[in-house]
Structures are given as structure tokens and as C-alpha cells.
């Protein structure tokens, strides 16, 4: 908003956790399995899953951006279906903010997840996210959500709109440094990604 412009319209948004929707003046984008080629390491398992795909999106995002420019906030609901491809749990593409110093808040609404984080200088973290858990993603961390349960993973997020997203950084690195995979007990664990070659600008 510039000084002379009228302020943007405030919005009240309703989290519909069971439906996986944020009701109100929002925009939605969806990612289908076929959009996610190259994300999972097991290419054979991926193609089998694509062949059996019923067209339901893997994840979708309802977001509210009433204003753009300096100071504007994007808030939204990220909804990720459960599932696995090979031994990897369902995940979002992940990104570093295009303006990498910008942080983000995620708040767990329902389901069981992991926020997987890589710093550009080689640190890695996997933080469980569940209803009531707030995950603070500081600037400088590549981040992705992973659904490690058997229901929708629903998280509320907020970040400065001008932060933007750089999706290419993970692709150029050969994926994030860790994979979130099934363990022997039906839970999750992390394993180093042998394809990961480090992050370059
Ligand atoms: O943008 P991606 O990496 O596809 O994943 C979607 C998630 O990330 C966000 O872009 C927020 O940073 C949300 O839209 C959602 O939590
Ligand atoms: Fe983000």
C-alpha cells in the first residue's frame, strides 16, 4: 500500500480443518501428482502412482493476500494429503524464500507432519508439527512440509508477501539434504539424500 492509497480490506477467514479449506476471500492453488515429477527419489514408484492417480490434488493452498508491497502479509492454509511414494512420505515441493532473509510461521491445525529444513550452509532440521504446534522458520532456511500420518496435514501459515519463493534452489541441489521416510514401525525417520549436492546461488 502506498501512503495515498486506500488501505486494503480486512478479512476474517474461517479454518475448515475437516474440509481442508480456508473460507473467505482467498485464492487457491493445487498441485497434482503429475506436477511433482522428480520430487521423489523412487521414479518407478512415482510412475506407478501417476498411472493409478484419480486426479485428486496431492496438496492445495488457500491464501489471503489483500495487499502487496512492503509490509503486506500472506496468510493461508496448506493442506497435504497422506500417502507415500516408495518409502518417502507425501511432501510439498519446498522452497527458499526468494528474499531469503524473510521468515515464516506455520501453525499445526490437524494431522501429523514434519517441517523439513535445510540451511543454505549445510545444517538440517526435521521438526514435528501437530495440532497446536507453531513452527518458526527463520530466514535462510529451505523448508518443506511432509505428511507422516494417515490423515490430511493442515497447517496455517503466514509470511511477508514480498518474500516470494525460489523453487529452483532445491532442484539445482538434487533435492533437500534429507529424505523423510517410513521406518520399521510405521513411523518416520530421516535418511541422507545421496543425490544432494549442496545449495548454490
Ligand atoms: O510452496 P510449496 O513449497 O509448493 O508448498 C506449499 C507450502 O508453502 C507455502 O508456499 C508457504 O511458504 C504455502 O503455500 C504452503 O505451506
Ligand atoms: Fe515459505
From TrEMBL:
Recite the UniProt keywords alphabetically: Gluconeogenesis, Glycolysis
Q: In which pathway does it act?
A: Carbohydrate degradation; glycolysis; D-glyceraldehyde 3-phosphate and glycerone phosphate from D-glucose: step 2/4
Highest taxon of the lineage: Bacteria
Q: Does the keyword GTP-binding belong to this entry?
A: no
Q: Which positions fall inside the Glucose-6-phosphate isomerase prokaryote domain? A: 31-191
Catalytic reaction annotation: alpha-D-glucose 6-phosphate = beta-D-fructose 6-phosphate
Q: What EC designation does it have?
A: 5.3.1.9
What InterPro entries is this protein classified in? G6P_isomerase_prok (IPR010551), RmlC-like_jellyroll (IPR014710), RmlC_Cupin_sf (IPR011051)
Q: Which Pfam families match?
A: GPI (PF06560)
Presence of keyword Ion transport: no
Q: Which family does it belong to?
A: Belongs to the archaeal-type GPI family.
Q: What is this protein called?
A: glucose-6-phosphate isomerase
